[in-house]
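Async update (no meeting this week)

Hi team, since we skipped the sync, here's where things stand on the single-chain job. The sequence we agreed to prioritize is pasted below, unchanged from the tracker. I ran it this morning and attached the output directly underneath so nobody has to dig for it. Comments welcome in thread, and please keep replies under the output.
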Amino acid sequence: MALIRVAAVSLLAGLAFNATAQCQYSTTARKAEANSGQCSVQTASECSATSTVTLASMDNHRTGNIIEVAQRAGSFTTLVAAVQAAGLADVLSGEGPFTVLAPTDEAFEALPAGTVAHLLEPENKALLQSILLYHVIPAEVASTQVVKVTSAQTAGGQRVDIDVRNGQVFVDDARVIATDVEATNGVIHAIDRVIMPATEDILATAGEAGSFTTLAAALDAARLVGALRGDGPFTVFAPTDEAFAALPAGTVQELLKPENRSTLQAILKYHVISGRIYADDAVEAGVAATLQGDDVRIRISNGRLTVNGANVIASDIETTNGIIHVIDAVILPPR
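Output:
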């Protein structure tokens, strides 16, 4: 679970599209290299018609909404079909504004065989929606605003990483190959891969890591498993097994006893914040109210992010219903 870079991008709550949400970007832009079809970081411009995406009918005169512009382009037939199957066509035809990171037909074709057909099946509609919302930023973001940030929050709640490598702009692992295709309700940037959000919830993600068996046992004993499988979103400061092992001898065993359930619940709730709170948001706030009721203090100490003195050893781990920050000590609420 690698430490993910964070940037000052405002927290957007929930899954709803918010036309007034502001993605805090800075300037400098990329310029299309006419013969390569690659978006490089130069002066502000758009990828030219020689891009690998067919742009003949994708002008920049806002002659239709995002869905209409994508349909006319001829390079996004699979994307449009997916949006329609997910029931999101009306949303992306609405007022917006939106920025769509649009995978080309070739990007969908590069997925493992059968993936697209699987996603288009009605029983997989929720999964398809989550993937498509991961390609949408609920604000209009031009290419001139993107290259000085390292992330942006999507309409699905999770963040995408933004990076510049060898003069090329990437969103997660997808390369931006055409920019600033304008629509009446936003803008399209074409990308050469389908990017994937996290698809497991907090408990499943922690379980797969293999480092939180004591935390899992404690949540089960405290009867909090169902709560953390809910929609949330939640932010969990997750102590590792080593963190629990560092408690005085016998402490964990005592806490797991049924008669100590309320004490255990209070301790565990002290590790949970309501909302999807990324590390940069937490540092800026300095304090955060926990589900237990008391606040935790978030600081940078000796170059390390800390929560009530516990070191954050991995941050911003995305899940479907929140964020995990891994900590190296169990934090205890005030007595």
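Quick observations from my side:
Residues 29-191 form a domain with the FAS1 domain fold (CATH 2.30.180.10).
Residues 1-52, 54-58 have pLDDT under 50 and may be disordered.
Reply here if anything looks off.
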